[in-house]
Amino acid sequence: MPDWVKRFLPFISLIALCALIPLGEYFFLGQDPKFLTAGNLAAIARQTAVITIMAMGMTMVMVSGGIDLSVGSIVGLAGVVGAMSMTAGLPVLAGILIFIAVGAACGLLNGMAVTALKIPPFIVTLGAMGIYRGLGLYISDGNAVVGLPSGAGYLAEKTVFGLFPLPLFIVIAFALIVHFVLSSTKLGRYCYAMGSNIEAARYAGIRVSTFQIVYYAILGGLSGLAGAIETSRTVTGQPNAGEGYELNVIAAVVIGGGSLSGGQGTVVGTIIGSLIMGVLANGGNLLQISPFIQKIVIGAVIVLAVTFDEFQRRRMETSES
Amino acid sequence: MPDWVKRFLPFISLIALCALIPLGEYFFLGQDPKFLTAGNLAAIARQTAVITIMAMGMTMVMVSGGIDLSVGSIVGLAGVVGAMSMTAGLPVLAGILIFIAVGAACGLLNGMAVTALKIPPFIVTLGAMGIYRGLGLYISDGNAVVGLPSGAGYLAEKTVFGLFPLPLFIVIAFALIVHFVLSSTKLGRYCYAMGSNIEAARYAGIRVSTFQIVYYAILGGLSGLAGAIETSRTVTGQPNAGEGYELNVIAAVVIGGGSLSGGQGTVVGTIIGSLIMGVLANGGNLLQISPFIQKIVIGAVIVLAVTFDEFQRRRMETSES
Amino acid sequence: MTERVAALEMRGIDKSFAGNKVLDGVDITAHTGEVLALVGENGAGKSTLMKILSGVHYPDAGEIFIGGEKVRFSNPADALSAGVAMIYQELSLSPHLTVAENIFLGREPVRLSALGVIDDRELNRLAEELLKEYGFNINPRTRLVRLSAADRQLVEITRAIVEARKVIVMDEPTSSLTSGEVEELFRLIRDLKARGLAVIYISHRLEELDEIADRLSILRDGRAVYSGVWGELSTDQMIRHMAGRELKEIFPPRKAVIGEVRLRVDNLSLPPKFEHISFDVRAGEVVGIAGLAGAGRTELVEAIYGAHAAHSGEIQIDNQKVTQSSANQSVRRGVGLLTEDRKRTGLCLNLPMSTNITLANVGALIKGGRLQGKTEIEVTRNYIGKLNIKPPSPHKMVARLSGGNQQKSLLARWLFAGSKIFLLDEPTRGVDVAARSEIYREVNELAETGAAIVMVSSDLPELLGMADRILVMRRGHMVAEFDARKTSQEEILKYAALEEN
Amino acid sequence: NRGTNTKSQKVIAVIPKGVSHSFWQTVKAGADAAGAELGVQIDWKGPAQETDISGQINIVEDAINRRVDAIVLAPSHGDSLVPMVERAQREGIPVTIFDSGISTDKYLSYVSTDNRQGGVVAARRMGEKLGGKGKVAILGVKKGSVSTDEREQGFEQAIKKEFPGIQIVQWLYGEASATKSLSAAEDILTSHPDLNGLFASNESSTVGAVSAIRQGNLTGKLTLVGFDATPDLVNNIKDGAIDSLVIQNPFKMGYEGVRTVVDKLNGKTPDKRIDTGVSLMTKENMNTPEMKQLIK
Ligand SMILES: Nc1ncnc2c1ncn2[C@@H]1O[C@H](COP(=O)(O)OP(=O)(O)OP(=O)(O)O)[C@@H](O)[C@H]1O
Ligand SMILES: Nc1ncnc2c1ncn2[C@@H]1O[C@H](COP(=O)(O)OP(=O)(O)OP(=O)(O)O)[C@@H](O)[C@H]1O
Ligand SMILES: [Mg+2]
Ligand SMILES: [Mg+2]
């Protein structure tokens, strides 16, 4: 099988979905399909941006053999602190830097705790999940931070060339960067090596702790950025924002071929994983499927997509040579 | 260090907590400590029973190298179906069997999917989590199932010898059974063998798929039982019951020394893990700590307890040689 | 020899992995009460053939007969119940279980058999008896993680012997053992023969086979190229069958000029692993370190490399004192450690060969801020050619390479890292004769370019053939030093095992 | 109602905060009744969790992109849904807000209960039952959840102002889960065995509170004033485990919400503010026809 076909394969589930939804709209609802309209595609881009951005950072952390359950809480904490800084009068752009800085600081802390305490990252970040969420709630006293400047909606609402939503550009820009890092830099190469065998990586002279901290900090920074977009979308700093996102983010990575035990995963795969979940949710809404049935469908698609992917991967390995 | 001291060690964090809370009540609130009253201890037993019972099943699955994210959804689904069967006129005892049967069926399905599809259990059960939750909501149309017979509260309310709540007895009974299974039977021995090196277990002639399915089915059955207790506690079948429990259950196992990569974990450890979290929540309420601060404290204690445990374990291993 | 039913016959076995034909119509026969030696180069397909016999893999074509009856094994349980047991090349034990639990895994003695309640007291008693009977000094209640590689191998041997009823396969059972333990194993093999079992024995240590083999089968590139009675072929002829070419000499001559001291170790201690170790290594010199298992050689080279901190003492590299060593700094200073346990501390098994080879020197592939994939593949192909790594595909996951080829990939890593001081810990463990000779040639070339080489090995002929000087360690102490040309195996062993005499 | 669409029918998207409480189910019943009566198609869709604000934004966005004829929305946050509501208005889709308020005036009508008033009603009942003195506790839902915060604050302020002899001794939260509410209620009773009254501010907290009372055998010894009604909770009034329930009129919210937008589509202008009112259900009045009508 030629190489480009192989690269193309992970898209199959996604493309199948994108074909099925308009068909459903036409035959089921007897409507002109709205799914493939520019407006709806832009909506999907906006709706999936937050998860996709976090999932790119999570790809790094998971490829390196780690995991971070606290990302959802980071979205909330960064959202509250960032929103407060804006209501306190900081200009929107500087505010966005605050979001990212808060996120990166949380990530840095996670990374340092993981390497220093020598306990599994699942535990460290499970604890951090409670700590950051509690902090966000404590700072805001549980109330949403309101009264943001009108420019705060910019990140989420702004469209470029009158059509493409700004979050789409942010996603694309970061996807290119993270893809480049993972495939063509030391930072990325060490990610795979550490995830595959951390002892071997250490013996090969890689300063594993330093790099681990960097990966967590990057994920934290991206989660902070996601918090900025989320805040911009809801025009409030919600202390509960991002609740449960950790599972969606991890699912995006894993649907995209990333492994929970490290050493495997790609940016392209992760983006497809995130899009599959986003398209399913959007398509379910358009097809007016009951939210209960939607839950069932999304669950089934996650399992089927990964099964299909694994099956293809195994078949291809047999036929290669 | 003598062996009994080692066995005793995991209790230390728990005992420290149990000493600190009454001190806090006395000096902080200026009250007579209520924490150590029989009534409150019984309340803790009732409050932690659901998580503890599930965590014992999760110990088996995690020791064998698996994981199950769908347990919370099983609580909800079993709760709805079981409650419906009772409102339909089934006697309470038969109803309880329905809860367990629904749970076991879900677990069996999980196990079969994990072994047949050859994809990571994290994915299979992430999908199952959505499917079972959606099913429970669909069946009940999102409403709590109400109008249970008055005996339905029995499981949660009944006290034995006028003091000990029935759920405590259920927990103790199952703890003894699961402890016995894990430490003294083939079923348990193969759990550790599979979790520690699944290839080696297969080479030794163990039918790993069959056993894996059994472990998931047991966890499912215990989750169904937990659903029965949960339903009995609120005397309603809540379709959203058990949401988020998967993280608590996994945390209980891991705080108790279980490993996410399999091969390690004990029933005693898991129970302590579950109690640590339960005591923290109860103590936080008694001390009237803000729910936000409680989140922070629980997060910090999870990290500290595991760090302390790891540290002790490592120190002991070095001093042994 | 009279005609009789063979204990085992495998006929026309084919097997492909991912479209690569690994076995192609292989026939082998083993008789009761005899040892069949199975030899071949790394990657010839020996382990694969045996895993088919033990039910791990299923053959694409071919038939298996046990005692004349046709059998089909779809999993290891089937093979075990047919009386076929195997010692696997990669240790296949459960680290979190105890020695006794591992030995009886899958066949625990039970009380209340309906419940499957394990009789642990009986289990430990049986294990203790067995270990004592076999002469292995191991506590059955110890958890496996606490055992040394050698002891684990003994546990694996015990386990297989208990299970075997008709055929027992031993895939390189002695790779971690020292001569005393090997003798013990041979005694057990003779017992097994007397009990009427057929033994299939795989090893790259041809000299070992002389003692026990009755018959010989040779595999080359997945085909059985020779079958016959042991002794019909000379060693040279055997090697020619295995490699398909002539091999001039195993230990190629070296013309290195010995120069300045490059590595000096002074009074290095890490009690209780090793104490007061001093020696130096010059440019162009190969210094061998001999010792029994557990003598502390691995700990010593790991401490020099900086994988663990030494407790006290001093290390000098090119006359500069090294403080606060770490693996990272060692690599920068041009020190490379070829680790003893390639699975645990060497390879990233699920990554491609190319990534593994370039891992310690990724920086050299970066141009203009970008890692050059093409260069990486070229570099890898270069080492594939130089070390004759098979199969020659840079993208292949190293987990899919045979043991010997994995070892060569690891050596290639340190060659590419441009190391000047090589710490080689058991560099030829599991490596076939021809490949060993290639590694030796490479080591000699390195010495000729001025590298300093420390070679830890349990294979005494190898040390005698390769080293300039041989140091002997015993229980963490350096007890003797010999000029390699003026000593013998007996003399070295005498010092290595002194207290036991 | 999937597949029943004929192109002649107008489509009204009714978007609640969540879908899985009987409160929302009753809203749906009201909306469906209005839909059947007025000949419009009701698209009922909400996020799975009431805290999932961006999930609700997505649903509104999808409805706008689908070009529904009108939207009836219970905003999960007063500020967050403003851009979407304003966008709908710009694109000519009328929006009626129900249940909770929104920080813009670019909507058609606002149909809701006065939540603060609900808390006040509960406080007055509590004060009367306790004869103006004693210890009470609040079992809240979740700090930051606007409508329940208002009820709890309404209760607290009315108690402080009108019944100075009553002391509020504890205030815990049940996180919108019946079980967590039960645990919190148990802990309140542990801390204050001499408690006289308990106020629970929504369905899940009331379910938890009544379970704690039953399990503690405190029926009749403790005055529980709850909020929202299910048939089960109403049954608990009969034997006094629950003293009374503050009941909103979710059916009316659903009905009026749909009616207002249909009026608009038919060229009429509905009232900007429609109060659906709160009532107090007690043992005495629970069998009156007015009360029976409120619990569907
Ligand atoms: N699971 C597998 N998937 C793909 N290829 C495999 C697998 N196992 C073995 N191979 C390939 O099959 C060939 C034969 O390997 P095998 O392990 O049988 O060799 P061997 O003769 O035992 O070598 P050695 O002496 O190094 O142990 C090698 O090329 C190896 O790469
Ligand atoms: N008694 C023991 N308990 C646990 N681990 C041991 C013990 N002895 C040795 N080991 C481990 O086995 C490995 C090899 O042992 P060590 O370095 O002491 O001896 P060596 O001379 O290198 O022996 P070998 O010939 O087996 O390589 C090391 O990783 C060491 O930690
Ligand atoms: Mg082999
Ligand atoms: Mg060694």
Describe this structure in words.
- With 321 residues, chain A is mostly helical.
- Helix content of chain A is 75%, strand content 1%.
- In chain A, a hairpin with a 3-residue loop joins β1 and β2.
- The longest helix of chain A has 29 residues, at 291-319.
- The mean pLDDT of chain A is 87.
- Chain C has 501 residues and is an alpha/beta fold.
- Chain C folds into 3 domains: 6-243, Rossmann fold (3-Layer(aba) Sandwich), CATH 3.40.50; 259-334 and 419-501, 3-Layer(aba) Sandwich (Rossmann fold); 348-418, no CATH class.
- Chain C contains 17 helices and 22 strands.
- In chain C, the strands form 5 sheets. In chain C, strands 6-7-8-3-9-10 form a 6-stranded mixed β-sheet, sandwiched between helices. A 6-stranded mixed β-sheet of chain C has the order 16-19-20-13-21-22, with helices on both faces.
- Chain D has 296 residues and is of the alpha/beta class.
- Chain D is built from 10 helices and 12 strands.
- Chain D has helices at residues 22-38, 53-65, 82-90, 115-129, 146-162, 178-191, 203-215, 231-238, 250-265, 289-294; strands at residues 10-15, 40-44, 70-73, 95-98, 110-112, 134-140, 166-173, 197-200, 223-227, 244-247, 273-275, 279-282.
- In chain D, strands 2-1-3-4-5-11 form a 6-stranded parallel β-sheet, sandwiched between helices.
- In chain D, α4 runs parallel beside α5.
- Chain D is elongated.
- Classes of the chains: A mainly alpha (321), C alpha/beta (501), D alpha/beta (296).
- Chains A and B meet through α6, α12 and α14 of A and α6, α12 and α14 of B.
- One magnesium ion binds next to α1 of chain C.
Derived from helix and strand composition plus strand pairing, the structural class of chain D reads alpha/beta
Shape of chain A: globular
Any low-confidence stretches of chain A, pLDDT <50, length ≥5?
none
pLDDT averaged over residues of chain D: 89
What coarse outline of chain D follows from CA principal-axis ratios?
elongated
Q: Summarize the main sheet of chain D.
A: 6 strands, parallel
SSE pattern of chain A, N- to C-terminal:
HHHHHHHEEHHHHHHH
Output the radius of gyration of chain A. Answer: 20 Å
Largest interface: A-B, 48 and 48 residues
What strand line-up does the widest sheet of chain D have? 2-1-3-4-5-11
Fraction in helix of chain A: over 70%
Write the H/E string of chain D, N to C.
Answer: EHEHEHEEHEHEHEHEHEHEEH
The largest sheet of chain A, given as strand count, sense and whether it forms a barrel, is:
2 strands, antiparallel
SS-based structural class of chain A? mainly alpha
Q: How many beta-strand runs of chain A?
A: 2
Mean residue pLDDT of chain A = 87
